[in-house]
UniProtKB/TrEMBL annotation:
The lineage of its organism: Eukaryota, Fungi, Dikarya, Basidiomycota, Agaricomycotina. Belongs to the COPE family. GO terms for cellular component: COPI vesicle coat; Golgi membrane. Pfam families: Coatomer_E. It is a peripheral membrane protein. It comes from Piloderma croceum (strain F 1598). The coatomer is a cytosolic protein complex that binds to dilysine motifs and reversibly associates with Golgi non-clathrin-coated vesicles, which further mediate biosynthetic protein transport from the ER, via the Golgi up to the trans Golgi network. The coatomer complex is required for budding from Golgi membranes, and is essential for the retrograde Golgi-to-ER transport of dilysine-tagged proteins. SUPFAM superfamilies: TPR-like (SSF48452). GO terms for biological process: endoplasmic reticulum to Golgi vesicle-mediated transport; intra-Golgi vesicle-mediated transport; protein transport; retrograde vesicle-mediated transport, Golgi to endoplasmic reticulum. InterPro entries: Coatomer_esu, TPR-like_helical_dom_sf. This is Coatomer subunit epsilon. It comes from the Eukaryota.
Length: 312
């Protein structure tokens, strides 16, 4: 059973309170909490794109397979060089082979699968990611389920996401991560008018010991879908004040501004800034593609000149 301190660390990581890890003091190296806390802190630093800090945190000569995997992920995320990225992916493939056949009860070996699947997904290798994570099998790794569900939702297969979730309920305890997975599926599918997702995010945001801009963004998106635009904008603006520069928060705020009572000029300013700051975001790419299709279709039609009235 996890100690109270480790449980709190796990809770913060699960709910995206990554900034809490930046100044987190690690337990004494002799403590059983030392390695799992270090692993959570390194992963949180990667999520914040402090990849070099994550690499520096991991002992260079560690034989721990989970630490090796997280170092490889940090190198992948922290560079744009194709050679370095491919080398990181190859290292993760080797680690997956090394633990092949190992039981899921080993948390560190299970974490290798989660980290590898995450890297492969980021690299666009969807099938390899799902295979590494054990999609559709009888594995018992709830973190892997969370990533599998995220992948299925991202490729517009909520049916497969729900199957994976239902399978996990046969063995997983009703813990925080299981509730988060269910809320993610509800956010995409709109089940019960987003009531469960909204309730879950609101409950966690009310926790005075937790500060997570990701939860605020999730509830903001839920409120947009529930047509609660002013409340959504409030959540998203608070999320931005806690973590400026987050692309998903900015994207949701652009949508809220376009749907709400915001002045047109203000909404256009937000969109212009978003395009400048996040030119490769899927929302920007999608709008550009649709604008191109519209221009292409419009070119097929010739608009007749306006009729001019003549004196009788």
């Amino acid at each position: 059973m996890d100690s109270t301190d480790l449980y709190h660390v796990k809770q913060q990581f699960t709910l995206g309170a990554y900034k809490a890890f930046v100044d987190l003091t690690l337990p004494d190296p002799s403590s059983p909490d030392y390695t799992p806390t270090l692993l959570y802190k390194a992963r949180a630093l990667i999520a914040l794109e402090h990849t070099q800090e994550a690499i520096d945190l991991i002992p260079a000569n560690s034989e721990n397979v989970a630490m090796k995997a997280i170092a490889a992920l940090a190198k992948y995320v922290g560079t744009t060089e194709a050679e370095v990225r491919e080398a990181s992916l190859e290292q993760l493939r080797d680690l997956c082979v090394e633990i092949e056949g190992e039981a899921d009860g080993d948390d560190e070996k299970g974490l290798v699968r989660v980290v590898a699947g995450t890297a492969f997904f980021r690299a666009g290798e969807i099938e390899e990611a799902l295979e590494s994570l054990g999609a559709g099998t009888d594995h018992e790794n709830l973190e892997a389920v969370a990533v599998i569900v995220h992948i299925y939702l991202s490729i517009h297969r909520p049916d497969l996401a729900k199957k994976e979730f239902e399978r996990s309920k046969q063995w997983a305890e009703d813990d925080l991560l299981l509730q988060l997975i269910e809320s993610s599926i509800g956010l995409v599918t709109g089940k019960d008018a987003y009531a469960n997702s909204n309730s879950f995010y609101s409950e966690q945001i009310a926790n005075p010991s937790l500060s997570s801009p990701h939860l605020l963004t999730a509830r903001g998106v839920t409120r947009i879908l529930r047509n609660e635009i002013p409340a959504a904008k409030s959540d998203l603006e608070e999320a931005q004040s806690q973590e400026s520069g987050d692309a998903e928060t900015a994207a949701a705020l652009v949508v809220a501004a376009g749907l709400g009572a915001t002045k047109k000029a203000e909404a256009e300013d937000l969109w212009t800034k978003f395009i400048h700051d996040h030119p490769n975001h899927p929302l920007v790419v999608d709008v550009a593609q649709k604008a191109g299709l519209f221009d292409e279709a419009a070119a097929n039609f010739e608009v007749p000149p306006l009729a001019v009235a003549t004196n009788a």
